[in-house]
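Progress report, Aim 2. The chain analyzed during this reporting quarter is listed below.
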Amino acid sequence: MLVSRLLMGVNIMHRIIALLAGYFIGLSVTVPAMAESSYEQFNDPFRFYLGAFRPKVTSEININGEILPPGPPIDVEDTLAVEDSKTVAWGGIAWHISNRNSLEFEVFSLKRDGGVSETFDPPIQIGDTIIESGAISTAYDTSVARLTYGFSLLRDERMDLQLKAGLHVAELSVALQLAGAICGPGTTPPGCPTGSTRAENEDVTAPLPHFGASFRYAITPAVAVNVNLIGFDIEVDDIDGSLVEFDADIAWQPWRHFGLGAGLRYFNVDVKGGNSELNGSFDFEYVGPVIFVQSTF
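Predicted structure tokens for the chain:
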């Protein structure tokens, strides 16, 4: 399912790039600065970018208890009524250290809340707590930072094909406040005691390595496209994690040091554990558009 979603995102982005490329190329011929044939800005060593990202999010969590056997994963958006789309700030910096070597840092943070009050059928298990009916308030925070080294296999004034290696650091946390008909160890639904309150929390900082490739191409001195695909799967010390990231952008830079762009981001991280740091699992996926401004020098 993950591969099919990724391929669907690639196909959608291909169409978006084709449409935007035609639009930006049309604009670029009307800008006097673009009469130059130089690709200097494409080869500037530094590129800063900052913009807005609006992901569509799907996620599941599972908080294991100390006594009860693990329950099924909980759909955060559908079951807990956490908002599934939100606009957040996103940005980064890329540095071409030399003709062949580069570094890139990118970061964003997504904080979402939700609340639901009803009779749950079937009852929801969170850790050693089972809630049969009542209210659940949820705070679900996700922060992702990525540091990537790139080695240019092929590079000229218009093209840069790179192999990538680096590290994602994903901070995932969920806090739930429960009130209503709640069963603990030793009692089971139906007929959980009413008027009870519980709090359940889980968080993990997961450093996950990644490998992949990117391709950047200047269609004109004003217009450049960039495609990036990275991923990895690792199992270390009772932590099992995987990630996939696909990015595609098109940037229009009619001025020497300033431009703007649009693109698509897809990201999936799945982390499972059975130790003191993470006793449960997080499955987090987003896909959505970005718009940004950039500066090169």
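The chain has a mean pLDDT of 86. The longest strand covers residues 129-155. These observations will guide the mutagenesis work planned for the next reporting period.
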